[in-house]
Amino acid sequence: MDDRSRSTLSIALVLAGIILAVAAGSLITEAETDQAHGTVIDYGDRDTLWVETDISGFPTTGDLLEFACESNGLSLVRDDDGAIRELGGIDSTESAEWGLWVIYPGSTEWVHLDAPYTQDPTEFTITSWSYVGEGDEPTVAVDYSGNPIYGYQQKLRVVSLSPSITEILASVKAENIIVGVDSYSDHPQSVVDAAASGSIAVVGTYTSPSFELIMGTNPDVVFADSSQRSHAVMMEQLRDSGVDSVLLYPGEDLESIMDNIFIVGTVINYELAAGEVIGDTYEVINTLAEHVFTPDAGGNVDVMISLEPDISPWVSGADTYISSISELFNSTNVFSEWGGWVHVTSDRIPYADPDKIIIVTSEYSATQEEYDHLYSNLPAQWKDTQAWKDGEVYVICEGAADLVQRFGPRTAQVAELVAMILHPDAFDTDVPKIIGDDYEQYLSYSGYMGYD
Hints:
- The chain is built from 15 helices and 20 strands.
- By secondary structure, the protein is α/β, with parallel strands linked by helices.
- The chain is globular, with a radius of gyration of 23 Å.
């Protein structure tokens, strides 16, 4: 496939995800699985304890709470009205308090229930006794289809239907249990080599997985991507055939990406490895933020992020992965008044007048000659911006383009590249105007997080 075809495919996949993510949400159902039942004790920051038990044996949620604490040797102190004052040595305070949170069948939304806890626990998809700060919610406990992520037996044969999911599995050190991937999973190299040798099966494309090929791997669990309606449909078909399937959330921001890593680790019982990936990601991003929010780094930057250097391009609006990452680092997306990826008319670009422009494309190679050609041949409307006048147009291409379009465990690497582009004075490394396969050589903080 030539570069232009790769670029067209890349854009098509991103735009398909925009449309289909909405449709996938309509497929939330009360899934039938062979999972065990139980309840969750959630200490916050994705630190959870799963208490497995037959919840039908408890008349009320309060009885279930007492069992969960007694069976795990946890202290429990409640007020006269039944509200939790202390659980496991952690007191309810003005800033955070214990409470009962539930998810109803057919939903993915948490609902907080007041004490006394006299509800029938079987009324809910899942119950969580959570230590939650004001304005926050408990740790994710169901997948995008509304099915609990707890209670699975050990998984030894796993299928991934997207490149991002394949990377998540590799990041939690679960490559040895992958038996199937989609044809676009090209990272890490060990998975590519295994697929080439036949030890890992290719079960279709990212947009069109094959039921027959998936079933041919005899999977214990299949992970699907909710940004593709075909995945949501496949998940239901697999569940109807007795195969456990998990539908991950759209990767629209840092938190949903970290939730997806947590979900994968929880389902396959690789929680510790998932926790390490999540912890390392936050550590790198916090370090980058410390560099960016200083006087030396300069002030807020207005940025435009485009999928192409066309006269009327597709640009990143709010609620997109790359926009959410950029806004962590003292910048404003000039097209944030719109949601998702937006096809803008040419007159909107000089009106928005960004300070910097980032173009994500696979159509170019990372050479100075290619960059000079792109820069000098941008449409007139692009040239009527402060970004073009100041030479602040950046191109992310080749392997770096794949990196920034995948909502997976290499998020810290995406964040470092974006932070350096937005605020180069805050970092020692000089970032070129065009970044390709050699992107890792510019990473001082996240270089070890390639998971290859």
